[in-house]
Amino acid sequence: MNGKNNSSTFEIGVVGLGLMGTSIIVSLLVSGHPVIGIAPLPSDMDGALDRIQSQMNHADEAGLLSENVDYYLKRLHLTEDYSKLKSCSLVQECVTEVIEIKTEVYLKISQNTESTAVIATNTSAIPISVLQENVNLPSRFIGIHWAEPAYMTRFLEVTKGALTDEKIANRVLSLARTWNKEPTYLKKDLRGFVTNRMLYAVYREMFAILENGEASMDDLDKAFRYDPGSWMTYMGLFKRMDQLGLSDFKEIFENIFPQLDNSQTVPTTMQAVVKVQGKGINNGKGLYNYTKEEAIKWEEAFKDFNHEIFHLAAQYPEINT
Amino acid sequence: MNGKNNSSTFEIGVVGLGLMGTSIIVSLLVSGHPVIGIAPLPSDMDGALDRIQSQMNHADEAGLLSENVDYYLKRLHLTEDYSKLKSCSLVQECVTEVIEIKTEVYLKISQNTESTAVIATNTSAIPISVLQENVNLPSRFIGIHWAEPAYMTRFLEVTKGALTDEKIANRVLSLARTWNKEPTYLKKDLRGFVTNRMLYAVYREMFAILENGEASMDDLDKAFRYDPGSWMTYMGLFKRMDQLGLSDFKEIFENIFPQLDNSQTVPTTMQAVVKVQGKGINNGKGLYNYTKEEAIKWEEAFKDFNHEIFHLAAQYPEINT
Prior knowledge:
Two copies of one chain form a homodimer. Chain A has twelve helices and eight strands.
């Protein structure tokens, strides 16, 4: 991978054709890259092309394409054959979160690519530095963590492992900007990465509020939707503090920090859901319950919302920097 | 205050004509109420009407009005004379966060209203149960906490103090829905209230990440804008967990909770800002620095963003309930 990127000749491999993998493929195709999609298991091929087509149509409806859908699909090759990765300068892994399986995938990738090819993982659970230990030439290994739907969020988290070459990290950050992303750079290999880690702090607190009977689940969700939801797409939290004028924060931190929840254990509400094998909207049993119709309605409306928030966010990229 | 609300004859008092007070007045006028605005100090009159007019125009541009601006302004009476509150069924206090000052205001309100009038505070710092102790007939005292700009966010936090009559709380919740709000009900008098408390958990964690050198301030803000910012207006955090399918959360909580920051002290970054009397965009010195032009540009763009996110949020009120 070199500094100059001409996306039309810059071939990228994606290993793993699950929900996330196909969504990443669509994002890369939309950015003009030829893409080789690898199915690590034959069954991974099932439905992959259908899903990519449907996501492509979604991207088209949202006005993200400059050519027609077929133009992009012609630049995609789905296969089980790792040797097709040969001319890829970057290979993005997004297989299941099991170290042994990922390690095997990295071996196959490095056996079938140039030594200069960057290998990236989409993991959100395993430290980059741990995965890196099992990669041939670990300095070219890096975390590129996407959010769903990958082609329609500006979020991208780039994480440097202990052995990752900083130059590689910088190149990936530049490349990501050509994908219309606003990449975040995580300089150390923080457990839980950046947004997730911050969100876990909220999860801990909100389960505590719920379980203390102070507010209902629905009210906690509403409060977040209508308060932070009314400014978060415009500004992050440090900026929000500046906007509010900062004056009371020191005192509030002094008063509130000692009262925040510091639990280290899984909230009982969550344990109860796990016990009944709740999979949220996937099986209707979750923190809330859903009929099949409700789950569908809810996912459909989210697609519409995606369009809108993506375009809204795109109007305010620079004002904050 | 009775159960049936006809806003055109339901008079509401607002005591305190600062930024928040005028913004609340605009919200109540837009909802059709006649409003008595009380200036607790003569100087509170300065600029209050100008601000209300300008906020009214903002609401008008955003398409929130069914009549012209003058129609609403005719239903407003600004005065220093508490006796004008006589026929108000609800009086909202939004003066400075000093218990003694608030207590004095409550005394004047109760001396000038019927004993059935509800008295509400906009405090975000003092527990309702504490303020309530000094109110004549404390069962009709309640927290109604607004977010800025009050006429253009759906957020409203209703907090029951230890002595508040639950029937009063339910009436306020019903009333708030006629104001186009999605009120959150806080059943116990939680320090920091709901959203703030959840956000303080994030603040604590993000300052820790920053001060450990793991990610920059700008990157932390970007991550929040583009990840949670891409779904938060659509769904709260419990719903988000359900959407993600819940499967890995138990394990992640077990791993991450013990690693989250549990500090009880003010972060050093914040202490440094307090030391130089940083007031964020108000004086250009904050967590970030701002020229006067940048501060203005940034506030102007936020007004535009407000319109857009308000209307976007309004399209998805029911799907989640």
